[in-house]
## 1
Amino acid sequence: MKRIKIKQLFAEAKEQDVVICAWVRTNRAQAQFGFLNVNDGSTLNNLQVVYDSALKNFEAISKFRVGVSVLIKGKVVLTPEMKQPLEVHASEVEMLGDCPEDYPIQPKRHTREFLREMAHLRPRTNLFNAVFRIRSVAAMAIHAYFQERGYVYVHTPLITCADCEGSDQMFKITTLNMQNPPLNEDKTVDFSKDLFGKQSFITGSGQLHGETYAMAFGDIYTFGPTFRSENSNTQTHANEFWMIEPEMAFCDLEGLMDIEEEMLKYVIKYVMDNCPSEIDFCDQFVEKGLKDKLSNILSSSFTRISHHDIVDLLLKSDRKWEFKPSYEDDIAKEHEKFITEHFNGPVFITNWPKDIKAWYMKLNPDGKTVAAVDLVVPQAGELMGGSQREENLDVLLERMEQLGVEKDGVDWYLDTRRFGGCVHSGFGMGFERLIMYLTGVENIRDVIPFPRTPKNCKY
Amino acid sequence: MKRIKIKQLFAEAKEQDVVICAWVRTNRAQAQFGFLNVNDGSTLNNLQVVYDSALKNFEAISKFRVGVSVLIKGKVVLTPEMKQPLEVHASEVEMLGDCPEDYPIQPKRHTREFLREMAHLRPRTNLFNAVFRIRSVAAMAIHAYFQERGYVYVHTPLITCADCEGSDQMFKITTLNMQNPPLNEDKTVDFSKDLFGKQSFITGSGQLHGETYAMAFGDIYTFGPTFRSENSNTQTHANEFWMIEPEMAFCDLEGLMDIEEEMLKYVIKYVMDNCPSEIDFCDQFVEKGLKDKLSNILSSSFTRISHHDIVDLLLKSDRKWEFKPSYEDDIAKEHEKFITEHFNGPVFITNWPKDIKAWYMKLNPDGKTVAAVDLVVPQAGELMGGSQREENLDVLLERMEQLGVEKDGVDWYLDTRRFGGCVHSGFGMGFERLIMYLTGVENIRDVIPFPRTPKNCKY
């Protein structure tokens, strides 16, 4: 008899002899028989195992505690009249690994704050089992979407000496002795002695590198970790997180929005198709109405409207704003909320004032705005940010000079504009932001397996 | 007319009107007509475009240089009698972005050393186009293999304060001013002022974190970047590389080998099915016989033999060894070569002397060896390394003490042995090692988009 996983056992739903390896979630023992609820991690659903006093170690089994790992041999019995479609009648139950009474993950509700302090155990709870399976399946959905369309997945470097986000937000890395670093004559640290021969960092974005690959493969995407060293303690900031950064040659702002919309719908559908129990669980226990929210996205057409027209709309509304809407400024959270409610769905906000956006974004003919686009979605706010890139070298150089961006470190990047440059566009999506959106979980610490935030680097 | 990609155009292989955006690879102009070979990155194969003097900008087109980006409108004409199955007769050819005469990527053979100095341009060559597309497709193959089997993809943290590989091989990261770091009273650096409140690193492995998730989900895998700060300049070392680290609960050494073998065959088949032109290219220009090598793996059954029996075999052979085989020592490169030739295929070497293996590996009943396994393959040598893990807490603690592994930082990890522990196993595979094996490329610098090696952190 070969071991079968519980997910498959439910899928086959037939009478058969099986071997199960799993962990005990609950154990209800009575005088002559008992019920183990076990879970092997293959599915959110527990399997009910019935054992009785005919088993030679019945007494021992009836004392198995929550958390114990077990091997079960038995027969599947279909129970169409019961809540669960089947159960296993055990002919053998063996303890593989014991679990003490003070095991913290007991079958009761634990607060998320409590579980955050045991990040290595929390995936054993239903909530985190659901969240991290959705995270895994959503990652696959992203790969599937891009690979089916011929995009090349590029592993851009994490260690870098140049970065478009500015080095003040980056972690420094070093192999030098920080206690007694080698010094130059002027007493500054002599980074020529460091492993890379100069000061290096871990990156906040793979975009610039990605663009160089888009100029070779046409369509590429990155999917990897990024880092920000900012000391901020909010529900949406972590110092380490994963980003997806696609970049498409011969693609303008309209084409970019087509891709963002199609990709988001694809990922939502993929996750709903492949994680029905997990989405149901989140719908029931995390965000009431989650399923409706996601289904509505699938059938909605995303609004496309300029930043200028959004500000018009905000000013014309009779709301009292904490932050006054302005044609020159960013859109505040309260505005985003109003906008997605007004349009009853996701909204692409395009053509932003150039002074609040990045140097590599395409300058529009008006000379005042850039061809940038943010996607804001109901509840989560900004989910993706992208732009058409400035493909004109002279304009780009002027923008860099205006904004004080150093040319020296990114001369290689400028080659994309020197050698057969073309209209191209890309966007970035924070993966955790997506998972929060897909699960309804409100704190980024609860969608990253081992989150890194200021003063928090346990494990 | 919608833009079509060249890959799809070849796949459809029918007469139709098309719009193509691409880059010029060659331009052969004659008096009344000319031929552009263009590539849009969707496939290794170039498209031949015929243009003639009926076009109003014929003169200009005939001067388009290599590297120029173009928009082409025209009609597909099937050419079954020619080398290429079809060509496009242009009704319009427009330059999108110019390219100067000194463009370094000319249609001639460049050395890999030369191209390494322009990592941002080399994917525009056939070799690197093939290699990095194979890299992308192989990454997808790995995700597909594990996800189809219900494994959960876990993003283990990159920033860490604990590591099983030992911190001497890790990069330190900091937000402190390295010039004037805050000091403790004893003049040591005061890391309590650093962002995480203690000294932190970027990781060399996600295994320990992965194990905690295997104890929740059963089967998990990681796939992410890892770092080693070693100052070594060889063909196979980089300071930043990608690793895959699967971990399976209720899985012993034999089960582990089954998975490694099945996964490798799956990935090879997936890449051969999805990158036929790229594999052909590598077979022709990189490693003669590559295709046969890969096909042979698919049909071979991997040998499984103990380290002890391997040493027997080596000692009994009549070879003169530079490194004398020993029951207590590692297997040298020359031994690996002999072994894979002897068995004419991949070989699992099991049950290694405990003193040369890691502290978390399962101690065998003999007390001398551990249930570790290395997979060595023809030419590439070691491709994967794994083991059954020591699930017995007391034995594990004793091993840690013997090997001087600090318990304090990994107490959370030890919980996997306290709370429902079980037999479990896992392995690590360097992704670059796999790509070198799949392409025949011999230098790791040529299979990473922007490689990081000592003194090399350009881009």
## 2
Amino acid sequence: MSKLFVIGIGPGNPEGMTIACRAALEQSDVLVGYTVYIDLIRPLHPKKAVFATPMMGEVARCKNALMLAAQGKTVGVVCSGDAGVYGMASLIFELAQEYPPLDIEIVPGVTAALGGAALLGAPLSCDFAVVSLSDLLTPWAAIEKRLVCASMADFCMALYNPASKKRADYLEKACGIVLRHKAPDTICGFARNIGRAEECTETLSLAELKNAKVDMFTTVFIGNSQTKLIQGRMITPRGYRLD
Amino acid sequence: MSKLFVIGIGPGNPEGMTIACRAALEQSDVLVGYTVYIDLIRPLHPKKAVFATPMMGEVARCKNALMLAAQGKTVGVVCSGDAGVYGMASLIFELAQEYPPLDIEIVPGVTAALGGAALLGAPLSCDFAVVSLSDLLTPWAAIEKRLVCASMADFCMALYNPASKKRADYLEKACGIVLRHKAPDTICGFARNIGRAEECTETLSLAELKNAKVDMFTTVFIGNSQTKLIQGRMITPRGYRLD
């Protein structure tokens, strides 16, 4: 039976990959993915066959991966971060029903919520919610409800896809919603280009975050009511008595 | 300046570690952690100095790590899964204020929500919430509110620490709360001993989960309203049109 890996490569730098990720990349005859992610791993596998497609072509890309596997190739579908979290794993399983039986293995990876948190300090040490602000596949009303409910329950939050060219004001909208339930001085932060050359972080208040300029390579963190700044780091205490 | 790593080792098997994790373990003069996690990595570093303490000694353990670093040692504080998510990163930052300046680096890892999801299929492909059912550091009322709000907003959920000897009925209580807002046939699953010899998974309905027997080495997954079983796997579709 042919093998198809869905591989989470982590933030993008080789150090952020797991050993299992490196092995699955190695074992694959052909690597399939979004052009930007394929470019991140191509230096590790300069001679490997690749099938890179631009954004928005996810269904066609996954169908192609399944077709290559049906032809007997060992295929690696490459995702940034984790293979499941806003990755291709679910789509592969959905589409695989139309293809001959296949051995599908999901290789988990360090998603941006974890990679960004490590750079900022420890913002997600307590219960947290992960929300994508992209309304391409999820209606905005559902996103808004999740922001409201996560805020009401004092979850820490990681926001993916906080902006794009077409959605320049989505983070501002999201912060406006969160500000109805969380204090304006709630500690927030963001991490940009995690694991890449231009990697940077910033900490700021929720009120300031509302007007921050972010892009699609940014992951945003909103603290809970206990989150604080310690020597410039964004820290959510777990609640231990320190004495 | 001394260096202190807080290292997420992933599920526990060497393949689940990142390259950065392996490098940080290698670079550390002494490894500090909960006995069970230290035992997982000791075979990789049989000659390395270790300081292993049982559960509940987290503050003393972190103080010890900081003291060793203050003495000039390169210290690796070992956490299972991620370094931040219910890990030691926040506690280290809180306590470090009382010690000489230190170069603290957080090495993120594959937390159980991602590792378990990969085994089950793709349960966390949409917005999700991570909640620990342990009320050692968080009042049960806060946990209950988070379960209610996450359910109301149709988040997928990963539940950590679903049970212990003293909290044998906590998963049953949690499912009772979730059942007020999610359908009894909501697809759920759990993963046990992720990355270890006795690794296993099970899928079941939310109604069945309420009576499931789980232990402290289990991570529980509750789907959203769209989650389905595809060939035995727990899959949350992202919403792509498949044609």
